[in-house]
Amino acid sequence: ILLLLRNPKDVATSFYHFCNAMSPLPSYETWDDFFIAFMTKKMPWGCYFEYLSEWNKYAADENVMTITYEELKENPVLAVKNIAAFFGISPTEEELQSVVERSSFQSMKKNSQKTHGAFGDVLFRKGGVSDWKNLFSEDQNEKMDKAFEERIGGTKLGTKLKYEMYCKA
């Protein structure tokens, strides 16, 4: 099982834009309204921290590889090599480069109309990291950090995400 995680702050930011672009989902007039709903577990898909807590039960299993979106963005070649090794695949250098190019956010966004139809525009917005800095107030940042520490900070997944969130920021 390949478990892909992402900085909870970027998850919230991405969900905010996703909700406001998807008419069947609740939309939010302001980021502040969304942030309150996100932090008080009032999301249609549940609480991200609870999702992480549930997956943490399996994070040490030998058949689970955990990787972060931030790792994929920082060094896609190494990430793909590690994923291939985990699944027992030995790609050639040419195959490796092809996978890296075809799985890049830019490539997937470019092909999203073919792969996902009109829904592609909703799924592929920016694909960056740290976009949360454009929305979070200082107070919201502190609240998210506190909730993160309380809910998953000392867990295996929490430790992995914490490194991505604070050591590389």
From TrEMBL:
Gene Ontology molecular function: sulfotransferase activity
InterPro entries xref list: P-loop_NTPase, Sulfotransferase_dom
One matching Pfam family: Sulfotransfer_1
Residues annotated as domain Sulfotransferase: 1-155
Keywords: Transferase
Organism superkingdom: Eukaryota
Gene3D superfamilies assigned: P-loop containing nucleotide triphosphate hydrolases (3.40.50.300)
EC number annotated for this UniProt entry: 2.8.2.-
Family the entry assigns: Belongs to the sulfotransferase 1 family.
Name of the molecule in the record: Sulfotransferase
Species name: Sagittarius serpentarius (Secretary bird)
